[in-house]
Amino acid sequence: MTPTLTALLCLAHSQALAIRRPRAQEAVGGQGLLRPQGLPSHRNSLPGLSLGPRTRGQAGTLPKPTLWAEPGSVIARGRPVTIWCEGPLEAQEFRLDKEGSSVPWDRQIPLGPRNKAKFSIPYMTEHHAGRYQCLYLSPAGWSEHSDPLELVVMIGSYSKPWLSALPSPVVTSAGNVTLQCGSWQEYGRFVLTKEGGHHLTWTLDSQRHPSGQVQALFPVGPVTPSHRWTFTCYGYYRSEPQVWSGPSDPLELLVSGVSRKPSLLTQQGPVLAPGETLTLQCHSDVTYDRFALSKEGTQDLPQRPAQQPQAGLSQADFLLGPVSSSHGGQYRCYGGHSLSSEWSAPSDPLDFLVSGQPPVTPSLSVQPGPTVSSGETVTLLCQSQIKMDTFLLCKEGAADPPLRLRAEYRAPWHQAEFSMRAVTPALGGTYRCYGSHSSSPYLLSRPSAPLDLVVSERGHRGPPACAPTHHWNQEGAGGHKRVLGRPGRCRRMGRDSPQGQPAPLTLVLSPFPGPSGGPAPYHPQGWSLRPRSSQGPRTPHPTLT
């Protein structure tokens, strides 16, 4: 054999050993391919792991693989997860590495069509949480690492945070909003995720709120109707960045636009009693596919599919109830099309008040009396011994909002006077009044006893009627009521009234016997009228003074 041929054969033999040696070393653990380092020598390598110099040179022309997890990278504890690594068709073997481990986490032969491998975790635990990368072996050598995949485990014992939008989940198109993620659990960081094709995430350190809870504020915007804006958030401790709480309830932003606003309707009055059922109807002459209802100060945005009672009209009913104090507030509704994330302009607001809180009953009286002629001035007086900031006057069957007046204190009563000048028959009806506190403007006291106001045409009065100038009910000992007041006057035209002048009458109370001789409970039939006469003896009944 010539010297030249011998040299060529030796060179070929040494190159063959250099190619085969990595496979032999990988089969026994891969110590020749991965060695501990203080910092990764490649930007996509995991800390603590780096490629050997021979393989790195071979991997320069190989595309890096793709790594993902199904059903996702955030998995509840105890649930299964599958990690996939995909490379080119010539891939012969796939390897999965976990951050912090000096040896491969797992190795798999590719599945058909021989370009990806499956790594299964049947039961997710904290042990499996971490950052992963994969690489593949081809005839040209080992590829570089994939981009990192962070696998997170959710722990059920961690309380889920809450997520809200400030100032409201209803945002005008191109507007901005702040999402507030918070919890009473001492999480060090919060993660906000946006649902959708890209599944974007943001992480912020927690801040202490004056209330004692921790929170993070995520500015979002400009918000456009090009896609849906649905978010959830999580909390975790700084020492365990891949161990998260459960997700918050999802929050969807409603992007309102400029299309024609619907109308919000109801057949009920503005004041609701606890236990009632409230039905709101969102109605439009635009053929919307769906409607949404919003309540000021809350995060809920219930949606209903639209019904079409006739061509060109659309509507949806929102059933609320049984009514409680939480239903008091201001409502609006929006219309939307199924193929767009943009909603209509908001309807005009509709206010609802809930009675019974606080459990106080004011009184309502009228001057000069419950029967008047057109053109007269009538004053309705609402009073309470319990402090109220505002009094409201409601007319039964009226769709208009109640009249509101700030309370005045005239010892020992808190009161408000509602004056109606030049009354007409249209103002006749049944009235009630309520009290409220400024801290809860949508919560009202119990209603006063009803007061019937009769307004007759001028010169055509109804039957004689009397009422005390003032009266009120006050709870006394044993649950009984006292009736207090001042003398009233009943206008009565007749023979006993010379020259058509009203005869003075004294309004007295005929007491009903109460239990155990206690104060008599108030009852409308307890009132009686007696003419005051200078010739006869004064009535033995207790006169109201």
Mind explaining what this structure looks like?
The chain is mostly beta strands and 545 residues long. Among the domains are: 66-153, Immunoglobulins (Immunoglobulin-like); 162-256, Immunoglobulins (Immunoglobulin-like, Sandwich), CATH 2.60.40; 263-354, Immunoglobulins (Immunoglobulin-like, Sandwich); 363-456, Sandwich (Immunoglobulin-like). The chain has two helices and 43 strands. Strands 4, 6, 7, 9, 10, 11 and 20 form a seven-stranded mixed beta sheet that branches. Strands 13, 15, 16, 19, 21 and 29 form a six-stranded mixed beta sheet that branches. A hairpin with a 5-residue loop joins strand 15 (189-194) and strand 16 (200-205). The longest helix is centred in the N-terminal third of the chain and has 25 residues, at 3-27. The chain starts with a helix and ends in a 14-residue tail after the last strand. Residues 1-59 and 462-545 have low confidence and may be disordered.
Labels describing this entry:
Immunoglobulin-like; Ig-like domain-containing protein; 43 strands; elongated; disulfide bond; disordered C terminus; transmembrane helix; repeat; mainly beta; 2 helices; seven-stranded mixed beta sheet; six-stranded mixed beta sheet; 545 residues
- Indicate the radius of gyration in whole angstroms: 40 Å
Bulk shape: elongated
What CATH architecture of the domain at 162-256 do you see? Sandwich
**Count the strands?**
43
Fraction of residues in helices?
A: under 10%
On the 0 to 100 scale, the average pLDDT is 77
State the major sheet: 7 strands, mixed
Q: Percent of residues in beta strands?
A: 35-45%
Question: In terms of structural class, how would the helical and strand content be classed?
Answer: mainly beta
What's the N-to-C terminus distance?
Answer: 142 Å
- Which topology of the domain at 162-256 does CATH recognise? Immunoglobulin-like
| CATH level 1 name of the domain at 162-256 | Mainly Beta
Tell me the number of helical segments per DSSP (H or I, 4 or more residues long): 2
* Poorly predicted tracts of residues: 1-59, 462-545
CATH-level-4 superfamily name of the domain at 162-256: Immunoglobulins
Q: Assembly type of the shown chains? A: single chain
